[in-house]
Amino acid sequence: xxxxxxxxxxxxxxxxxxxxxxxxxxxxxxxxxxxxxxxxxxxxxxxxxxxxxxxxxxxxxxxxxxxxxxxxxxxxxxxxxxxxxxxxxxxxxxxxxxxxxxxxxxxxxxxxxxxxxxxxxxxxxxxxxxxxxxxxxxxxxxxxxxxxxxxxxxxxxxxxxxxxxxxxxxxxxxxxxxxxxxxxxxxxxxxxxxxxxxxxxxxxxxxxxxxxxxxxxxxxxxxxxxxxxxxxxxxxxxxxxxxxxxxxxxxxxxxxxxxxxxxxxxxxxxxxxxxxxxxxxxxxxxxxxxxxx
Length: 293
Known about the structure:
With 293 residues, the chain is α/β, with parallel strands linked by helices. It is built from 10 helices and 10 strands.
């Protein structure tokens, strides 16, 4: 069921992750802002391709209450073709460097599935969360690399690759199938020395409309892992196709789904629209406070 309180009575969840010696408090949900420096991301591709535009957007998100900025240089939308490691670094390094220089207080996440990119960016720019949409499937060295770097890791579930993931995704039971994979990979990450793992069930990555809403409806099932859960549904097709609008007109739907995700136990909302998500979190947090009186 979507709104349940029973799981929280039996499982003590982890409510913080450590980055660069500082704790990111997840006692109440937080908002991760998306800053794509790729040219073909499905919603904002090509908008942030200069340092001025990148810094302006980062400043806007900080003013709107963002807790983490997630910087990505490779589009993983359905049908995307990917880019070389060299091109990814050419886009990513200047963006992360500029944000870190001008806004050193804001925690950063880098959206990459390449361990070499993670190593290079962290070596030059300092510690960042690693947000890997492939869950280590595209790079056998990723888990060991994150363990050695000592940074938090976002473990996302995806079925297939961006090129084929939406062709005909199949599950016996989506929660059980994802949970089985999470269990296996969390064990590997722990063995590799990774101390902070964040789970992302991967809305839209190898999932059809029914899969996505089944996943949303049973999101609280992942509380059994006692790990933070990230939800990224911002302006995705599960929203705009259902509502028969363009992604540009799907903010209301996105806010609705984000709120439902909070009720289902999401600890981090990964979004394009920071202000709206922060407001949803504030309302949800007040609701939780009143419920606990």
